[in-house]
Amino acid sequence: MTKKELLDAIHGRMIVSCQAVKGEPLYVEEKSVMYLMARAAKQAGATMIRTSGVRDVVAIKEETGLPVIGLIKIQYEGYDAYITPTMKEVDELVEAGADIVALDCTIRKRGDGTTINEFIAQIKEKYPDLMLMADVSNYEEGVNAWKCGVDIVGTTMSGYTPYTEAKDGPDYELMSHLAADLDIPVIGEGKIHSPEEAVKALSTGVWAIVVGGAITRPLEIAQRFMKAIAKAKGEA
Ligand SMILES: CC(=O)N[C@H](C=O)[C@@H](O)[C@H](O)[C@H](O)COP(=O)(O)O
Q1: What is the ipTM of this complex?
Q2: Function of this protein (predicted)?
Q3: Can you tell me the mean pLDDT for 54-67?
């Protein structure tokens, strides 16, 4: 698929994030099971999947035949970013066949001393045709990534950096500001928990949205029910 075809396939739509990393209930050591979540997402009408780790990129592409936004979550010493922080992860994702590579593009400390701008430039030099999705936490980072030549900016990291407010729901404001000012697609991602929130997020003008935990993280879903019940009982 060309870059345009990939973008057209998701315009106005929901991408489903199917992720389970070590320690999560749906992470199974012996074998990826997230392809089953992706199967469900495809049956529901999803046209693209976001996932983490080489084995899930491979298994999900094999199962669904859908294009995949791939990332690798890994925490290195000296790095604040943990989403595809170095070229090693980019290489692995390219090798695995990810159609788009997502990486942390927040302006935080990188262990090798490079700036995020330098890292993006290195990736673009090595893989000129690779589509990049920049996961950012605020407006400035979105503009910066756009100027560095990424293809997509996502609001993924809003509320997950020390300098952004950790809200319980989506950052609609960031979505609409970035969507208004950037001339590349913006993806609204992070804490979209209900169909109503999904519709509202899309109405901010973003190109597409990503919904993850509310669909594919059973622990998170169950906890949300438990919390609401405890609150109603006056226990929380
Ligand atoms: C902050 C971070 O590490 N986000 C990760 C990025 O890929 C995932 O854990 C999220 O599930 C994803 O962004 C979708 O968001 P939500 O699950 O809230 O719909």
Answers
A1: 0.99
A2: Converts N-acetylmannosamine-6-phosphate (ManNAc-6-P) to N-acetylglucosamine-6-phosphate (GlcNAc-6-P).
A3: 98
Q: Is the dihedral of CA 193, 76, 99, 204 positive or negative?
A: positive
Contact 110, 119 (CB under 8 A): yes
Tokens of 14: 């929901």
**Pocket lining: 136 vs ligand 1, CB cutoff 6 Å:** no
Ligand 1 atom closest to the CA of 191, numbered from 1: 18
- Rounded CA gap, 74 and 79, in Å? 10
CA 156–ligand 1 middle distance (angstroms): 6
Calculate how far, in angstroms, residue 137's C-alpha sits from the geometric centre of ligand 1.
Answer: 12
Flag whether the pTM goes above 0.95: yes
Two tokens, residue 38: 């992706």
Query: For the chain, how big is the Rg over CA atoms in Å?
Result: 17
In which element (H, E) is residue 128 found? none
211 lines ligand 1 (CB under 6 A): yes
- Tens digits of residue pLDDT in 191-212: 999 999 999 999 999 999 999 9
Of 178, 179, 215, give the one whose Cα is nearest residue 197: 215
The share of the chain scoring above pLDDT 90, in percent, equals 98
**Ligand 1 binding pocket includes 70 (Cβ within 6 Å):** no
Q: Tens digit of pLDDT for each residue in 100-132?
A: 999 999 999 899 999 999 999 999 999 999 999
